[in-house]
Amino acid sequence: MSTSTTTDTTATAVAIAFYEHISAGDLDAATALVDAGYVGHGLGSDGGPSSVRRDLETWAAAVPDLRIEIEDTVADGELVAIRMQLVGTQSGDFAGIPASDLPFRIGGTDVLRVREGRIVEAWTLCDLASMFAQVGALPATA
């Protein structure tokens, strides 16, 4: 068991709030939960809240109706693992792929480190290949 200044309950509440703000389109509130010293491995990989904000703005421009459906959370001290589904319609350009106006549903997993009510580090994995196939940018897989 880890020793931490953040309890499992607090870390989980911060993580869930982060994704709820994103789903509501409130990028200011989501970004406010990111610590100035944030380190990202995936989302916001440049570091700091501004890099997270830039990544979230990219998603919001491409998928204005993005919803994040949290399926599971597991916490240990300041670490929270979240299994989720990202659901939306790609109505703007994304990663060089022109808007398709097609819906998608993909899986994602994040592990967030939360200290003193802020996200200080994150490891992000999402199934972009499935998204690209669902929006017509890659051949569909069987």
> Count of DSSP helices?
4
Task: Choose one word for the global shape.
Answer: globular
Please list the strands of the largest sheet in the order they lie side by side: 1-5-4-3-2
Name the quaternary structure. Answer: single chain
Structural class comes to: alpha+beta
Average predicted confidence as pLDDT = 93
Task: List how many beta strands DSSP finds.
Answer: 5
Question: What's the end-to-end separation, in Å?
Answer: 42 Å
Q: In terms of per-residue confidence, which ranges show pLDDT below 50 for 5 or more consecutive residues?
A: none
Helix content: 25-40%
Radius of gyration: 15 Å
SSE string: HHEHEEEEH
Strand content: 35-45%
Describe the structure.
The chain has a five-stranded mixed beta sheet. It is 31% helix and 37% strand. With 142 residues, it is of the alpha+beta class.
Brief sketch in words of this structure:
The chain has 142 residues and is of the alpha+beta class. It is 31% helix and 37% strand.
What are the key terms here?
5-stranded mixed β-sheet, single chain, alpha+beta, 4 helices
Write the layout of secondary structure elements.
Layout lengths: L7 H16 L3 H6 L1 E8 L6 H15 L4 E10 L2 E12 L11 E14 L2 E9 L1 H7 L8
